[in-house]
Amino acid sequence: MPPTLLDAAVNGGALATVDATGSPQLRLYATQWSRPDLGLRGFVVAGQPTSIQSENLKGLRGFFIVSSIPTLLAAFLAGWLITGRALRPLKSVVETADSIARTRDFKRRLPPAKRRDEIGLLSERFNGMLDQVEAANQQLTVALEAQRRFVADASHELRTPLTTVRGNADLLAQGPALTEEVRAAAARDIASESERMSRLV
Asked: Is residue 176 within a helix (H) or strand (E), and if so which, with residue range?
């Protein structure tokens, strides 16, 4: 036993690794012991081969490796389930957006948000955007209908003056066979109908 170990043990417990010839390396712990009532004192020394510690470490390492595989699998499965559950509302948003794009049904909405997180806010904002798109679409429909009516009305209103102008132009094209009075009446009709068309436009 190395004397340095016993010297260190006087001041409290001490550890040392000892190489003994012909035997395995030892890890020793020494502490001072005394019984003043009996007049005894000495040292208590305990030790074990370092190979036991190495074997223990190998066993622990193997245990951690083996136990980490199911732990990692469980963590992966839990992460997959949690992620799937968390992203399910986003899938609903995407499906609704695709459906609206396909069918152009601007009245369709996402179900009311049950959660007060980012996905719930996204659903609310998406529905708000759809409200605005629907309102804009209705305004556009009304404007297009008004334009269609205007074009139909203008076409109807222009048809009569154009017919009159064309008829009088054909009449004037007959040349000298017309009397001056007929020519003047045709010119007045053309001017009158032209004025009427100008007011329509």
From this structure: none
Task: Using the CB atoms, write b or e for 6-40: b if 16+ within 10 Å.
Answer: bebbeeeebebeeeeeeeeebbbebeeeeeeeeee
Nearest to residue 18, comparing CAs of 7, 29, 32, 31? 29
CB of 50 closer than 8 Å to CB of 25: yes
* Contact call for residues 16 and 28 (beta carbons, < 8 A): yes
- Give pLDDT tens digits for 79-96: 888 888 877 777 888 888
pTM: predicted TM-score of the whole model, two decimal places: 0.44
Q: At what angle do helices 118-172 and 180-200 cross, to 10 degrees?
A: 170
Quick one: tokens of 11?
């001041």
Q: What residue type is assigned to position 81 of the chain? A: L
What gap in Å lies between CA 73 and CA 100, rounded to an integer? 39
C-beta separation of 69 from 61 below 8 A: no
Structure tokens at 89: 């509302």
Q: What are phi and psi of 179, to 5 degrees?
A: -80, 160
